[in-house]
From TrEMBL:
It is a multi-pass membrane protein. Keywords: Cell membrane, Membrane, Transmembrane, Transmembrane helix, Transport. This is Iron ABC transporter permease. PANTHER family: FE(3+) DICITRATE TRANSPORT SYSTEM PERMEASE PROTEIN FECC-RELATED, FERRIC ENTEROBACTIN TRANSPORT SYSTEM PERMEASE PROTEIN. Belongs to the binding-protein-dependent transport system permease family. FecCD subfamily. It comes from Sanguibacter suaedae. Its main location: membrane. The chain crosses the membrane at residues 26-50, 79-99, 111-132, 138-157, 169-189, 217-236, 257-279, 299-317, 329-346.
């Protein structure tokens, strides 16, 4: 006698984390949507200013330029600041994510490795001693200062047992930043003219820059971006702790040194071109992490897209709210970034990395 057939009972799908393939597809779609939004922001950026240009005419100025047309000339004059805003925002977003991953410090930003202070001290030296006044001349001084300060911080943190640990990097960065800031103050108080020149660079701005400035820093930012985007797996291993990373086959010291090179290129190049732009490197990686989760292979590209968007939108707002003048982008990013950062802290999104 055969047993009666038991109807097949479908297995209830597991609730919880969505399948990895579906989540990856969602993240890819989000990244593509973010890139499309960046294109729209760039178009708005070249259309908004003292002379308003309709978006259709702005597009014509980019695709079918007519020499002598006033609207087309206005759009073309805004291209350098828009391109620089995209590059600086993406670079600072990537640099912030790299810093937070390498140091496992949720408060890391371009100031923690002395990048801003190093760039500032050589800019001041160039202004006081050599009398430089052009943003194109600032670039090389700022870049060299950022690189030297970052190397000094890493060298100091590497002394003693354990090498450049996250805590030692943070402490060394804070000490060297304090020392360089004191030196900057000492040089500036001796010259009022130098102080007036320096403060326009220090506030952080993408206006008044030419395509020559963009072309000067773009190669360094491109190399830094490649280093950063290739560091996703390394940062994932480092986030588990040095011992676990070594167990997974990572050379911790070499990995941190390579990431430090990327940080110097990204943060140094962006600071050299636009000055110290606040809160981008600090806030953007946390927003990206809230969207993507803890995987740095996604945090890094999302940080680049969100950082570029934040700087360009801040530049647009600076031109809109202070007509016929403008607010520099460093002021607007601080105003926008601070509330977002406070909200993230209150919602406990700033877990220890």
């Amino acid at each position: 006698m055969t047993a009666p057939a038991v109807p097949h009972q479908p297995v209830a799908p597991r609730t919880g984390a969505r399948p990895a393939g579906r989540r990856r597809s969602v993240l890819v779609v989000g990244l593509v949507a973010g890139a499309a939004a960046l294109v729209l922001c760039a178009l708005v950026s070249v259309a908004v200013g003292a002379r308003e240009v309709p978006l259709a005419h702005a597009w014509d100025a980019l695709t079918a330029y007519t020499p002598g047309d006033i609207e087309h000339e206005a759009v073309r004059s805004r291209i350098p600041r828009t391109v620089l805003g995209l590059l600086v925002g993406a670079a600072l977003g990537l640099a912030g994510a790299l810093m937070q991953g390498v140091t496992r410090n949720p408060l890391a930003d371009p100031g923690i490795l002395g990048v801003n202070a190093g760039a500032s001290v050589l800019v001041v030296l160039g202004i006081v001693v050599l009398g430089i006044t052009s943003p194109t001349q600032y670039v090389w001084f700022a870049f060299a200062g950022a690189a030297m300060a970052s190397v000094a911080v890493y060298a100091v943190a590497s002394l003693g047992r354990g090498g450049a640990t996250p805590v030692k990097l943070a402490l060394a960065g804070a000490c060297i930043t304090a020392a360089l800031t004191s030196l900057i103050t000492a040089m500036l108080i001796t010259s009022t003219d130098s102080l007036d020149t320096f403060r326009f660079w220090q506030v952080g701005a993408v206006s008044g820059r030419s395509m020559e400035t963009v072309a000067t820093v773009a190669p360094y930012l491109a190399v830094g971006a490649v280093v950063a985007l290739a560091s996703g797996r390394v940062l994932n291993a480092l986030s588990l702790g040095d011992d676990v990373a070594r167990g997974l086959g990572q050379h911790v010291g070499r990995s941190r040194a390579l990431a430090a090179v990327g940080i110097v290129l990204l943060a140094g190049g962006s600071t050299a071109a636009a000055g110290p732009v606040a809160f981008v490197g600090l806030t953007v990686p946390h927003v990206a992490r809230a969207v993507t989760g803890p995987d740095y292979r996604w945090i890094l590209p999302y940080s680049a897209v969100l950082g570029a968007g934040l700087v360009v939108v801040s530049d647009i707002l600076g031109r809109v709210v202070a007509r016929p003048g403008q607010l520099q982008v460093g002021i607007v990013t601080a105003v926008l970034g601070a509330p977002v950062f406070i909200a993230l802290v209150r919602r406990r999104k700033l877990a220890e990395l």
